[in-house]
Amino acid sequence: MAVGAVRPVVPVVQEEQDYPIDLENAERDAGLAQWAVRVHQPQDWPHGRFCVNDRARWPCPLYRWGFRVLLAAGWSEAAVEAYATGSGPPPAGTR
Question: How many independent structural domains does the chain possess?
Fold first, then answer.
């Protein structure tokens, strides 16, 4: 994806094979979730969009897990998207 290009928002819904989220400890897991959404980014190929890190269809299971953990920790969808793409800092008090 070209620098500065706007990536279409992909709905991150829970699928059967997704990793579980411990809602009571979502804030504790937020640091690892931040890493997951930054590292597991999409890359477009002629045959579809895949995760740069694990080559799974994007959004891959770890990106979906990280996204859902950050939502459970109180982040907005817009804040997660901005942080994941590097266009925004994490919300205050989350580092």
Answer: 1
17 inside domain: no
52 lies in which domain range? 26-85
Spatial CB neighbours of 21, under 8 Å, sequence gap ≥ 6: 29, 65, 68, 69, 72
The structure's pTM equals 0.79
Q: What would the pLDDT profile of 25-39 be if each residue is shown by its tens digit?
A: 999 999 999 999 999
Burial of 63 (0-12, 13-18, 19+ CB in 10 A): buried
Rounded distance, CA 20 to CA 62, Å?
A: 11
**What amino acid is encoded at 36 in this protein?**
A
Name 75's Cβ contacts closer than 8 Å, sequence gap at least 6: 30, 83, 90, 91, 94
**Cβ neighbours for 31, distance < 8 A, ≥ 6 positions apart:** 95
Q: Within a domain: residue 56?
A: yes
